[in-house]
Amino acid sequence: MGAFSTEFKPFQSDFLTSDTLAQYSPNYILFCPGKITVGNPCGERGVCIWNGVTSSYTCRYLVEFRGNNCETYDANLCARTVGMEDGRVENGDITASRSSNYPSYRARLHNSYGWEIYSANIYDWLQMDLKKNTTVVAVASQGSAGGSYYVRSYKIAYGFAPNALQIIKDSNGEDLIFQGNSNHNTVVRNNFPSPVTARYFRILLQSWNGNYGGLRLEYYSCYP
């Protein structure tokens, strides 16, 4: 049999970052697309790559899934930041409904101070523009280091345009309310129920400490 390679791509190939080698009988090539597409021995979240020279195939999986067939989603496996803390997200790409002492671009995790607003309300928001569609799996928050200003709970909206956002839902199809901070300094990470691909991510305030809201943020991805 001549050498060839075929790939089954349930996800964009750029998302694949780790390999698990499994060797089977050459008959299993029947499960690899390019021959007879009756299934995928790597599971629905895997990519089957057949090697005709070694008569074996490689299963490649998304890093935020684990288990024999990549059946379990685990966002804790993802620690790649999108660039809030280190400045890859530029100041002009961090916007807000309004600001008080400190503007929206101060809302970077571990930054001195942070985004602050007085007389916070549920119409206040903080938005990040990643400039390109990005798959995000988690968010981490702090309050503002300038005082006891922090957000106790929030929703997250996302989308490909700022005027067409949708809110992350829970398993019942209701708006998911993330539990935020109980002080201004401790980092609290919240994983999304499933990966979300968007350009814009917007924090929608739901509750806060007293009359003041304060935020410092980072988002996490599994992907370059």
UniProtKB/TrEMBL annotation:
Transmembrane segments: none
Domain EGF-like: 28-71
F5/8 type C domain mapped to chain residues: 78-222
Disulfide bond as UniProt keyword: yes
InterPro entries documented for this protein: EGF (IPR000742), FA58C (IPR000421), Galactose-bd-like_sf (IPR008979)
UniProt keywords, alphabetically: Disulfide bond, EGF-like domain
SS bond partners: 42-59
Superkingdom of origin: Eukaryota
Name of the protein in its database record: F5/8 type C domain-containing protein
Upper taxonomic lineage: Eukaryota, Metazoa, Chordata, Tunicata, Ascidiacea
